[in-house]
Design brief:
heterodimer; A: about 625 residues; alpha+beta; Nucleotidyltransferase, domain 5; Actin, Chain A, domain 4; Substrate Binding Domain Of DNAk, Chain A, domain 1; 4 domains; 6-stranded mixed β-sheet; 5-stranded mixed β-sheet; 17 helices; 27 strands; B: about 150 residues; Hemagglutinin Ectodomain, Chain B; Nucleotide Exchange Factor Grpe, Chain A, domain 2; 3-stranded antiparallel β-sheet; 3-stranded mixed β-sheet; HSP70_C_sf (chain A)
Chain lengths: ~625, ~150
């Protein structure tokens, strides 16, 4: 059965997504981008980034922002305004509708939009490897009937059966799962590349109702870039006296650098803009090198940010609501990545806006979810849960050894083989842990049980397989089985943990906070384990070698063993490592002497680890059994 | 009672069919995902260096610009070595000068006097990485007029 894709047919960029395995997935275009510029050369059928690249060469035939003409009458003032400003020809078509004329041929906005949709369709088909015939397409909430009809027709011309036209803010709210809420008021703040839209929605019984819309049709990311460019030009002029505005190449480089700086300042507080050889005068080449701080950027764009506040106030007024009535705020559009935008909206409403989904893609994601619902993909699909925290068990030295990492989709199972920590140990205790900390004691113990009846054997020999299995209901079954005797014990932990979301977040947060000290404690525990194992191996090696080793060497090895044992509980990592290395070094002499006797003194020292297969290097690898918790 | 039972069996059968359908669909999604994930793996191996090379290109640009200002044999060697390393990774310069403008590999920055629709000057070299466009060549394109158009 064919998929229904969700399409955000945007003014400057378009984006598409599809439900896959119950999850929305953005479909990249054939050029590898997640969004496609809504730019078209209709007579040559060039669409997207390639059309954008030839815009300068072919301005009269390059159509952009066609969405502004969808379903509009030619004599509307807005259309007349665009006609004045746009390089391509806007003409009157049938029934007085606005159309574009390229190379003597008249195209309706539907036909132009259809070319974008047709490219998206073909790219999606290549990506998904199947024919796509059905789509959900989004439109701004303020679109009237004729604009919606025009959008639907565009879809049909492109070869789609348009299953539904939905509002962009509704799609964004869907992407954040807000359809599950009842009787809530939602504000969607959409600051995109070239337009700003604010919508007030009300959700009741899974149906969204648009209460009010407002915005600024000519405010977006490009205006922010322009502010940075203007600042750079002014700074450069004051330093060098050179005006860069007439230099197209320099302007292009400024535009690239300005956009890059804007993006960087969303994650850092200061960035350096450096454009070597931006121009030259009689004194030689000139370079541009400016530091731009986030605070300075915020100051530069302050008026733009303030311009978004009035439409919000107007929309609230039209909806008959006050700020405090709003339950949820959703952020859409690339510019909402700017921390100041988020701050501003947060301060205005007094609540944290929804973000997290890529704001350039969130509308398409929501449309694909609607597509999934219509196609039956979403309705009854098993909502697969994830384990919120890591599950593991306690091993030697009080270390938490994870078996199932957090965020693993369930049902799932994992198993690992462990061993004993002492000679002739006949039982192991399995302490089932949940949490993100490195040491067992810092995590939550979900339960413990003992597997006994392990046949007596030297430490490290028995193989105990521990299996963690979480079923679809989130119930954890832990089984420990001795491979030699086939004896097994199990425990079932019902309903996970009873931890709520806040507690889980707290635990994850704590783990992040303590991450470096936890790593140190774990390293110490592991070093102790390694040292302990090596002393044991050394003793065994001495015993096995018997009188094949000299008395001096025997005394030396015993001395080193004692040195380790004396400080095992008190020493730090470095000291233990040093002493372990020292023991390891003398230990290799045992092998040397044994082989030396056997082969008439020709043994090479290249194989120092002969006779100590459980050397410290092997101890932490995953190849062999890992020591289990000792039971007294 | 008998009727109740048959209804419930009917319901169960519907439910079963629905479940089987859902299960198959999820499985199909997974298989398709696996296939694409395999393909993408190959792609990632091929283009693992892409982002690094993309970031290095401006450095190469600047070294080349520098060499226009400073005549130094050492600098020439550095540029040559640098370009050679990138070439070994599959980077190929787009030949644009005097060619017909091609939007699939070039970006027009400005129209200037000169032969129509022809690249008059390359402002910023373009590159292909393993036959995929990494960066378009930024070019000045001839307007066909003797004098500059604007």
């Amino acid at each position: 059965m064919s998929k229904i894709i969700g399409i955000d047919l945007g003014t400057t960029n378009s984006c598409m997504a599809v439900m896959e395995g119950g999850q929305p997935k953005v479909i990249p275009n054939i050029e590898g981008g997640n969004t496609t510029p809504s730019i078209i050369v209709p007579d040559q059928n060039i669409v997207g980034v390639a059309a954008k690249r030839q815009q300068v060469v072919n301005p009269k035939n390059t159509v952009f922002s066609i969405k502004r003409l969808m379903g509009r009458k030619f004599n509307e003032p807005e259309v007349q305004e665009l006609k004045k400003n746009y390089p391509y020809a806007i003409v009157e078509g049938q029934n007085g509708l606005a159309c574009v004329e390229v190379e003597g041929k008249i195209y309706t906005p539907q036909e132009i939009s259809a070319k974008i949709l047709a490219k998206l369709k073909s790219d999606a088909e290549k990506y998904l490897g199947q024919t796509i015939t059905e789509a959900v397409i989004t439109v701004p909430a303020y679109f009237n009937d004729s604009q919606r009809t025009a959008t639907k027709e565009a879809g049909q011309i492109a070869g789609f059966e348009v299953k539904r036209i939905i509002n962009e803010p509704t799609a964004a709210a869907l992407a954040y799962g807000l359809d599950k809420k009842t009787n809530e008021k939602i504000v969607v703040y959409d600051l995109g590349g070239g337009t700003f839209d604010v919508s007030v929605l009300e959700i009741g019984d899974g149906v969204f109702e648009v209460k009010a819309t407002n915005g600024d049709t000519h405010l977006g990311g490009d205006d922010f870039d322009s502010k940075i460019i203007a600042w750079l030009i002014a700074e450069f002029k004051s330093e060098t006296g050179i005006d860069l505005t007439g230099d197209r190449q320099a302007m292009q480089r400024l535009k690239d650098a300005g956009e890059k700086a804007k993006i960087e300042l969303s994650s850092t507080t200061e960035t350096e803009i450096s454009i070597p050889f931006i121009t030259a005068d009689q004194t030689g080449p000139k370079h541009l090198n400016k530091k731009l701080s986030r605070a300075k950027l915020e100051q530069l764009v302050e008026d733009l940010l303030q311009r978004t506040i009035i439409p919000i106030e107007n929309a609230l007024k039209d909806a008959g609501l006050s700020k405090s009535d709003i339950n949820e705020v959703v952020m859409v559009g690339g510019m909402t990545r700017m921390p100041k935008v988020n701050e501003l909206v947060k301060a205005f409403f007094g609540k944290e806006p929804h973000k997290g989904i890529n704001p350039d893609e969130v509308v398409a994601v929501g449309a694909s979810i609607q597509g999934g619902v219509l196609g039956g993909d979403v309705k009854d699909i098993l909502l697969l849960d994830v384990t919120p925290l890591t599950l593991g068990l306690e091993t030697l030295g009080g270390i938490m050894t994870p078996l199932i990492k957090r965020n693993t989709t369930i049902p799932t199972a994992a198993s690992q083989v462990f061993s004993t920590a002492a000679d002739n140990q006949t039982s192991v205790e399995i302490n089932v842990l949940q949490g993100e900390r490195e040491m067992a004691a810092d995590n939550k113990s979900l339960g413990r049980f003992i597997l006994d009846g392990i046949p007596p054997a030297p430490r490290g020999m028995p193989q105990v397989e521990v299996t963690f299995d979480i079923d679809a209901n989130g119930i954890l079954h832990v089984t420990a089985k001795d491979k030699a005797s086939n004896k097994e014990q199990k425990i079932t932990i019902q309903g996970g943990t009873g931890l709520n979301k806040d507690e889980i977040e707290k635990m994850v947060h704590e783990a992040e906070q303590h991450s470096s000290e936890d790593k140190k404690r774990k390293e110490l525990a592991e070093t102790k384990n390694a040292a302990d194992t090596l002393t044991y191996t050394a003793e065994k090696a001495l015993k096995d070698a018997g009188d094949k080793v000299s008395a001096e060497l025997k005394t030396e090895v015993e001395g080193k063993i004692k040195e380790i044992r004396d400080v095992l509980q008190t020493a730090g990592v470095e000291e233990l490592k040093q002493k372990t290395q020292a023991l390891s070094d003398v230990l290799s002499k045992i092998g040397q002497q044994m082989y030396g006797q056997g082969q008439g003194g020709t043994a090479q020292p290249e194989q120092p680890n002969q006779g100590e297969p459980n050397g410290p290097d092997n101890n932490t690898s995953n190849d062999g059994p890992v020591e289990g918790e000792v039971v007294e | 009672m008998a009727e109740d039972k048959s209804t419930s069996i009917g319901e169960l059968e519907t439910r079963l069919a629905e479940m089987e359908n859902n299960w198959k669909r999820a499985l199909a999604d997974y298989r398709n995902f696996q296939k694409r994930s395999e393909e993408e793996k190959g792609f990632f191996i091929d283009f693992a260096n892409e982002s690094l090379i993309r970031q290095l290109l401006p450095v190469l640009d600047n070294l080349e610009t520098l060499s226009n200002h400073i005549d130094d044999a050492g600098l020439q060697m550095i540029i040559k070595n640098f370009a050679q390393i990138l070439a070994e990774e599959g980077l190929v310069e787009i030949s644009a000068q005097d060619k017909e403008f091609d939007a699939s590999t070039m970006e027009a920055i400005e129209m200037v006097e000169g032969k129509e629709n022809t690249v008059i000057e390359v402002l910023n070299k373009g590159y292909l990485l393993k036959n995929k466009l990494l960066r378009p060549a930024r070019v000045r394109v001839g307007s066909g007029d003797k004098k500059e158009e604007r």
